[in-house]
């Protein structure tokens, strides 16, 4: 199945579909996006801050790992469809090993009998091995929130990745890539890149870049913009079981229509789009990305039809001279355990069990940086603000500890099971053995001059 090369003329519009909002998102969503209606591109966002450290651990165990393996299994299903319909895929699923991810994609393509597939690979974001060299050049990578020096956690550093933007992806598309695989690229850049490429937007057309960035922000969380996790009238959202992920219908002048495929569940409304726009933003006048600074206060929205929201009027400002660096480090150990207490007096029993557990912990001389108790079914969401409830049918006691002392955390795990026969009655729900310590990974955000980092774009072909 060879892929034909089609000459490129500027289109009057393109449709960019959201296929994944995080690593572990709905596996059927990207299949629906490429089969249930017309699209030109599909962006797939797999990365979060802690995801990079998880992938780095996988790569240390096996140099061929460190990327989203789910992506390969998915592509084995949809590649023939994407080739037939000329749908291009852009994803940061390469994690900390984009080259290995690309090679796995090419192998999958070969096994499917597809020839001529080009995979663009964006490299250069992983600077873990360069941290000391950069420090020697005066680039300290201080914590941008606390001002702490990196020296304080340098020996425990697990990952360090620069947030690249859209333009390395644009370079890969200009090189003929049908699939672009990146490492730590901004979520918004995955959507912005095809607009720059198809409409030939300038790198200094800040308003258009800001519009594409806002569209990327809307698409980056998958079904959240089309009715998933909707905190308004969530009962009014139809057929969430078959939710249609959002699509950005983009135009050369920077206007965007957020929509979804017909005959899919969910809803695209002013309310669902506005709620997603407010997700994870700080100063709304300065949404900073590597590509531009978008002013969210200038966004104008208009419902133009069923499941169609027009976005226009977005203003942008010049990009900064810095990239953000996402770093993670080992910050001790944690352990959690649960027991379930049943009616009558379920809450009182669970509270007594917690009191007994804490007394025994003190008697053993164990100390923790944190020890927290939640009563699931009563206060796990709202804590001390929870209204008092009488005669609960059941309560799950959940206790967790955190410490840099592995032995203390391990011993905590041995104190939960004894409560079954030495604490209040009517207890159940203890399964899977003693809770074991697990590593705590903490986040360290920093800034790095763009001049200190070089991107590399490779094009590989079957």
Walkthrough of the structure:
With 462 residues, this protein is an alpha+beta fold. It folds into 2 domains: 270 residues, no CATH class; 114 residues, Alpha-Beta Plaits, CATH 3.30.70. The chain has a 10-stranded mixed beta sheet, sandwiched between helices. It is globular. The mean pLDDT is 95. Helix 3 crosses helix 4 and helix 6 packs across helix 7. It has 12 helices and 19 strands. It is 28% helix and 25% strand.
Distance between the termini: 11 Å
Q: How much helicity do the residues have?
A: 25-40%
**Total of helices:** 12
Task: Provide the spatial order of strands within the biggest beta sheet.
Answer: 11-12-8-7-1-2-3-6-4-19
Topology, number of strands? 19
Quote the beta fraction.
Answer: 15-25%
Q: Enumerate the spans where pLDDT stays under 50 for 5 or more consecutive residues.
A: none
Q: Structural class, judged by helices and strands?
A: alpha+beta
Number of domains: 2
Q: C-alpha Rg, in Å?
A: 25 Å
Tell the overall outline. Answer: globular
Mean pLDDT: 95
Q: Main beta sheet: strand number and arrangement?
A: 10 strands, mixed
């Amino acid at each position: 199945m060879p892929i034909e090369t089609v000459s490129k003329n500027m289109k009057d519009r393109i449709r960019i579909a959201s296929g994944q909002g995080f690593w572990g998102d709905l596996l059927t969503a990207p299949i629906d996006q490429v089969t249930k209606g017309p699209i030109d591109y599909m962006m797939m966002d797999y990365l979060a801050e802690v995801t990079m450290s998880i992938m780095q651990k996988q790569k240390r165990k096996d140099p061929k790992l460190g990327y989203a393996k789910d992506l390969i299994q998915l592509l084995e299903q949809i590649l023939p469809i994407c080739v037939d319909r000329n749908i291009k895929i852009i994803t940061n699923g390469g994690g900390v090993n984009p080259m290995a991810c690309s090679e796995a994609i090419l192998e999958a393509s070969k096994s499917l009998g597809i020839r001529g597939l080009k995979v663009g690979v964006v490299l250069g974001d992983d600077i873990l091995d360069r941290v000391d060299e950069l420090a020697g050049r005066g680039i300290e990578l201080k914590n941008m929130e606390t001002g702490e020096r990196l020296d304080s956690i340098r020996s425990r550093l697990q990952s360090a990745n620069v947030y690249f933007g859209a333009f390395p992806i644009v370079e890969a598309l200009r090189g003929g890539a049908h699939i672009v695989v990146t490492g730590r690229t901004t979520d918004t850049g995955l959507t912005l890149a095809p607009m720059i490429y198809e409409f030939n937007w300038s790198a200094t057309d800040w308003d258009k870049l800001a519009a594409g960035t806002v569209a990327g922000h809307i698409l980056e969380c998958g079904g959240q913009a089309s009715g998933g996790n909707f905190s308004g009238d969530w009962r009014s959202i139809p057929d969430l079981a078959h939710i249609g992920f959002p699509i950005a219908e983009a135009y050369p002048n920077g206007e965007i229509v957020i929509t979804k495929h017909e005959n899919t569940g969910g809803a695209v409304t002013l309310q669902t789009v506005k709620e997603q726009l407010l997700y994870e933003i700080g100063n709304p006048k300065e949404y900073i990305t590597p590509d531009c600074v978008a002013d969210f206060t200038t966004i104008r929205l208009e419902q133009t039809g069923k499941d169609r929201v027009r976005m226009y009027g977005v203003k942008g400002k010049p990009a900064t001279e810095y990239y953000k660096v996402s770093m993670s480090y080992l910050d001790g150990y944690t352990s959690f355990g649960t027991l379930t207490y049943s009616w009558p007096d379920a809450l009182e029993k669970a509270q007594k069990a917690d009191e007994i557990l804490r007394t025994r912990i003190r008697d053993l001389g164990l100390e923790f940086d944190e020890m927290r108790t939640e009563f699931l079914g009563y206060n796990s969401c709202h804590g001390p603000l929870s209204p008092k409830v009488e005669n609960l049918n059941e309560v799950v006691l959940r206790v967790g500890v955190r410490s840099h002392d592995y032995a203390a955390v391990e011993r905590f795990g041995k104190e939960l099971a004894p409560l079954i026969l030495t604490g209040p009655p009517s207890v159940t729900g203890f399964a899977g053995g003693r809770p074991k310590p697990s590593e705590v990974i903490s986040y360290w955000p920093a800034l790095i001059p763009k001049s200190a980092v070089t991107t590399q774009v490779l094009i590989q072909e079957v």
